[in-house]
Amino acid sequence: MSTTEKIGGSVAAYVDDRVGSNRFLTRSLKKVFPDHWSFMLGEITLYSFIVVLLSGVFLTLFYKPSMVEVIYDGSYVPLKGVMMSEAYASTLNISFDVRGGLLIRQMHHWAALIFIAAMSVHMFRVFFTGAFRKPREFNWVIGIALITLGLGAGFSGYSLPDDLLSGTGLQIARGIVQAIPIVGTWGAFLLFDGEFPGTEFISRLYGVHILLIPGLILALITVHLMMVWTQKHTQFPGPGRTNTNVVGYPLMPIYMAKAGGFFFVVFGVIILISGLVTINPIWIFGPYTPDQVSAGSQPDWYIGWLDGALRLMPNVETVLFGYTISWNVFIPSVIVPGIVFTVAAFYPFIEAWATGDKRDHNLLDRPRNAPTRTAIGVMAITFYLLLFIGGGNDIIAITFDLSINSIIWFLRIAIFVVPPIAFVVTRRICLALQRRDREKLLHGYESGRILRLPHGEFIEVHEPLPAKERAVLESAIESYRAPLPAPAKLDANGVRNKFYRLQILRSKLSHWYYADDIKPPTREEIEAGQAHVAHDAALEAPLHDYEETHFVNVPFHGGILHEQGAPMTNKQQLEARGGNL
Amino acid sequence: MKALAARRRNPVVSTLLLLVALLGVGGAYTVATSAAPAEAVATADQTAIDEGKRLYLEGCSSCHGLNAQGTATGPTLIGVGAAAVHFQVSTGRMPMAAPGAQAPVKPVDYSEADVSAMAAYIASLAPGPAIPTAEQLDYSDADIAEGGVLFRINCAQCHQAAGGGGALTQGKHAPSLMDASPQEIYEAMLTGPQNMPVFANTTLPAEDKQAIIAYIADLQESDSPGGLALGRLGPVTEGLFLWAGVFAVFVGLAVWIAIRAR
User: Fold this and answer.
1) Between residues 158 and 177 of chain B, which touch chain A (CB distance below 8 Å)?
2) What span, in angstroms and rounded, lies between the C-alpha atoms of A365 and A350?
3) Domains B41-131 and B132-247 belong to one CATH topology
4) Which of A276, A351, A486, B229 has the greatest number of C-beta atoms within 10 Å?
C-alpha cells in the first residue's frame, strides 16, 4: 500500500467513524439512473433555479426596496432629474452604474423565465408519460405547488423594479384581489396598507420575493428530489426494462459527469443569452406613476395566459344588495386559474380512481397508449396557448395588421371550440397509432417487397420486428386498461349496493377513458405472429441463394439488401446485426 | 390768417405738429413696407394656390368634396391648416389607396412643391395651423428627461413607452415613431391626424413639443445597452424568443447530452 493510499484510507476512516457516511456513499454512488433526453428537463429547471439564486444574491447587494421619492442622478441621461422611487433608482443604478450589474440583472430575469419554462415542459413530460401514477402522486402535487410558487416568485420579481410595467402589473393584481366578493376590498387594503400604490408594498413584496418564496421553493425541491431518489426514476419501456428494475448507468461516474457537465452548459447558455439579448429594459418604461400606462403592457410569459383570460372576458357585473360583483375580473383571474391548478393537482387521483388500478408503475406509458390522457394534455396546452395569444392580442394586432376586436372575438369562440377539437383529433391519432402498433406486433412490418410464390400467389414479405422495437411496442400490454364494468344494483345476497351511484359515475368515467382503447395482442399472440412473419421472410431466402451477389449494401426502409458474397436470409441478417436495422 | 398767425407760437402747436408728422411718417412707412410686397406675395401665393387647387381637384376632391367641404367618405378640410396637409400627404397617408380603418403610410406620390401648393390652397380656405418653422423644430436646447416625462404622460398609452406603436380598436393603430421626422411629429401633435388627439400650443407649448421630439429622437438614435433589443416591446417578444430560441437550444443540448455513447 502506497503512502497516499494509507493517508487517504485513514482520512476516510476518520470521517466515517464520526459521520458514518461510507455505507450511504457506497450505496448512493452506485445508484442507477435511466437515460432519456426528456429526463434532463428537470435538471434544466434545477440548474436555472441555481442561477436565479446566485444572481439574486448579487442583486440584493445593490437593490433598495424603498418607495421613498428621490431625484435620479445616475448616468442614464434620459431620466436625469426625474422623480422616482428609490427602488426604481437603485434598479437603474444596477443596470448602468454597477459593474456587471446589467448582465447579472438580465441573467436573473432570463434564468427565471427559463426556470418556469423548463418546469412546465418537465410537468408535461411527466403528465404525458404517466409518471405521476402510483407511487409518485405526492411528488406530482409537490410539482404543482412548485409551479404555483414559481409563478409567485416571477410575478413578485417583475413588480420589484417599480418601473411603469411592474406598477401596471401591480395595479391589475390589486384589481384582481378587489374582485373577490366580500373580502376583496379589505384584502386589497390589507396587502397594500391602504390606497394604491401606497408606500409599503415594495418592501413587503421584497420579503416575499427574496425570503418566503425562495425558501419554500428550496424546501419543496429538496423533498421533490429526495422522493425521486427513494422511489427511483421511472424509465421508458425497452429491452430488459421492467416495472421492477432500473436500466441505466450508475451515478458515479457517468451521471456525475453528465449532470455536472450539463449544469455548466445550462449556466453558460444563460450567461450567453443574458450578455446578448435585452430583457425588461426598465429604463425605457420609466418610473411608475399611477396616472401613466404604456401601450403593449404585458406580464412575463407565464402570467400571459391569465392576462389573456382577463382580456377575453366580456364585461359582466352584477349588483347585489348594493355591492358590485365583478365577474369580468373574478372569473378569468381567480376562478379559471383556481380550477386549472386544482384539477392539475388532483389529476393523478382522478385517473387512479377511473382505472381502479392499485399497482406501482415504474415503467412509463407511451403517450399513444393512454389516448384519453394524452388528449386531455393536448387540450390543456391548446387552451393555454389560446389564452396566451389573447394576452398578446395588441402586439399581434399591430404586427399582423389585424383588428384587435376581431382577435378578441375569434378567441372568445375558439377558447370553447378549439380545445375539444384538439382533444378529439389527438385521441384519434393515438388510437390510430395503437392500431398500427398492434398490426406490427402481430404481422411484423411491411418490407415493401412483393414475392411471387411457385404456385403464382403474390405475397408481400413482412419482416419480424427488431428486439428493441418489439420490447417498446409490447409495453402496450402493460399500459392497457380495461374499463371498469358497470356495478350491480344488488349484490349476490340481494343487498342493496350503497355506493351504486358513485360506482356508476366511476364506471362511466372509466369507459370514457378506456373503452375505445385498442386492446393489444397477448404475448402468446405476438410470439405466434412474429414466428409466422419469420417464416414468411424465410420464403424469400432461396431467391438469393447464389454464389456471387453484387448488390450494394444499402439499408432502406423495410430491410437490408444482402452483402456481397454473403447470402443470408433476412432473418439471419437481422440476427447478425443484433436486431438493429 | 391773423388769428392763426397769432397762435403760431402757442405751446400746443408743436405737440400737434409732432403728432401729425409722426402719423404721416408712420403711415407712409406702413404703406411702404406692407402694401407693395403684400401685393407681390399675394401674386406668388395665388400661383401656388391655383396649382394646389388643381392638384386638390385631381387627387383629393373625390372624397373631400370639390370645395373641400367634406363628403360622406372624407372630412371637411376647411380650417385644418397647411400643417395637416403637409403631414398627411408627405408621409403618403393621403390620398388613401383604399378605404380602411386608418390611412397607412405608403410611398409618396407628390413632390415637395406639390405638397406646399396643396397646403397653400387648403390654408387659403380658412386659417389653420401652419407648417412649423425651422426655429420651432429646433430641439437642440430641449430637456430630454422632461420630454420623457411628457412622452409617458401624453403619448405612451397609444404609441408604447419605446415609441414602437400600439393597437387601437377596430384595426386602428398608433404607428411606430421610430422612423418619424421631427417635422412629422410636430405636425402630428399640432393637427391630430387620424385617431390622434390635437395637442395645440395652448395645451402643449412649443418647448414641450420640442422636448418630446428630443426624447423620441433619443429613442431613435440610442443603442440598446442590454444587447439585442427584441423590438423593445417587452414581455411578448421576450417570451417568444425564450420559447423559439432559448428553449429550443436547451432541448437540443439535453438530447445531445443524453445520447448514449456507442
Assistant:
1) 158-162, 164-171, 173-174
2) 17
3) yes
4) A351
- In words, the CATH class of domain B41-131 is mainly alpha
Distance, in Å, from the CA atom of A431 to the CA atom of A435, rounded to the nearest integer, reads: 6
**Overall size of chain B counted in residues:** 262
- Are A104 and A55 in contact, with CB atoms under 8 Å apart? yes
Q: What is the pLDDT of residues B127-183, one digit of tens each?
A: 889 899 888 899 988 999 999 999 999 999 999 999 988 999 888 999 999 999 999
Q: Is B242 on the interface with A (CB under 8 A)?
A: yes
B228 touches chain A (CB under 8 A): yes
Contact A128, A377 (CB under 8 A): yes
Q: State the nearest Cα–Cα gap between A159 and chain B, in angstroms.
A: 13
User: Are residues A117 and A72 part of one domain?
Assistant: yes
Distances in whole angstroms, Cα of residue A5 to Cα of each of A1, A8, A11, A17: 6, 5, 10, 18
* A:205-244 residues touching chain B, CB 8 A cutoff: none
| Count of structural domains within chain A | 2
Query: Are A21 and A67 in a shared domain?
Result: no
Give the residue extent of every domain in chain B: 41-131, 132-247
| Helix/strand/coil percent split, chain A, to 5 | 65, 5, 30
Q: What percent helix, strand, coil does chain B show, rounded to 5? A: 60, 5, 40
Q: Could you tell me if the ipTM is greater than 0.90?
A: no
- Same domain for A19 and A168: no
> Counting one residue from A and one from B, how many pairs have CB atoms under 8 Å apart?
198
Predicted model pTM:
0.85
Contact A297 B232 (CB under 8 A): no
The tens digit of pLDDT for each residue in A219-266 reads: 999 999 999 988 888 888 888 888 888 888 888 788 888 888 999 999
Look at residue A184 and tell me if it is in a domain.
yes
Q: Which domain does A58 fall in, by range?
A: 31-235+247-287+301-364
Q: What is the assigned CATH class of domain B132-247?
A: mainly alpha
- Domain stop point among A364, A385, A410: A364
Rounded CA separation A433/B34 (Å): 93
Asked if residue A174 belongs to a domain, the reply is yes
Q: Please, which residues 196-215 of chain B have a Cβ atom closer than 8 Å to chain A?
A: 215
Look at strands A445-452 and A458-463 and give their pairing: antiparallel
Local structure of residue B243 (DSSP, 8 states):
I
What span, in angstroms and rounded, lies between the C-alpha atoms of B133 and A304? 46
Kindly state whether residues A58 and A25 are assigned to the same domain. Answer: no
